[in-house]
Every structure is written in structure tokens, then in C-alpha cells.
Amino acid sequence: MTPIEYRVDHALMQALRCVEFRLPTNPLLQNPGYVNALALRYGLVGAAATHQLLVSADDSEVGPIQHASREWHRLVAGHVTVHLGHRIPSGRRPVDADQIGDLSGQALRAYLAVYHRDSALDECLDEAAKVYSARHHTEITKGWPWYRARRARNVFSTTTAESIRFASLFFDRRSANLEEVGEIALLGE
Question: What is the mean predicted confidence (pLDDT) over 41-68?
């Protein structure tokens, strides 16, 4: 394993652990919205890991980073299957790990579409979240009465803002080379 492959692998595993400790908890999210919120959280934290890798990489390292980002959906699906099956609230089961992986890959690709070396992480995350939310607005409001669709979008938006904050804080920890441990989440970042 080359040094960049090791760094990429380590950063992406840390991103998976970050989400593992920070599942969406808003009880108002209906199940389709919850699946999308969880997938978006994975995607945004994966984007933060990718951003940290890209801004610190030289030109020869960009290829392996981009290759790994194309495999993000598989990493997420495996992580959901192995580590989250018992942690997802009982009212949210069954959650399809492959679906969450595919959706998180969409969120990461939305980030990559707006990324350039001089872009600020928060702007990229915000834009990726907007693109993702627009693409999945039907699922976000599914399970809500039609007259509460705005409320459904607001609940999802609140969870999305929380995911962007977690991703930004994760980026800061990765930049400082800190390991992702559950105590950080328990203590409130």
C-alpha cells in the first residue's frame, strides 16, 4: 500500500466512524426522509474527508483520491451492514444498506461536481446538500400529509444543517490529525 493509499483509507475509515457516532436523531423524520438524511450525512462527511485529502495532496496523489471516492458507496453499504444494523432506531428498520450507500455516493458526487482546489469546504457542502435535497424532495416529504410538505422539508433541512456542521468539524479534526472516537460525539464535539 502506497502512502497516499494508506492516507485515503485511513481518512475514509475515520469518516465512517464519525457518522457511526452521529446518526440522525430527529424523531419527526419519516422513514424515507430518515434514509435520505442518513445517506446525506455519510455523503457530506465523506466529502469532508475527501476535501481534506485533496487540499493537502500534490498532483500525483489526486488520482488515487478520486478513485477511492468512486468506491465510497460500497464502503458505506458495508459499514451500514456491519456496524449500524443494531444502532438504527427500531422504528427505522429495515434500512437497506445498499440504498444508503448509493444515496451517499450521490451526495459525494454532488460535492465533487462543485469542488475546486480554492473552494471553501462549507460552500461545497452547502451546494452538495442543496443538489441532493432537490434531487430527493419527493422522498423527503413521503409519509407526510400533503399540507405538511413544507414542515417535512424544514425538518430535513435542520438535519442537513446538523450534518454540514458535523462534516465541518470532522474536517477540522482530520486537518489536526485527530482520531475519530465516540467520546467526541458524547461530549458534544
Answer: 92
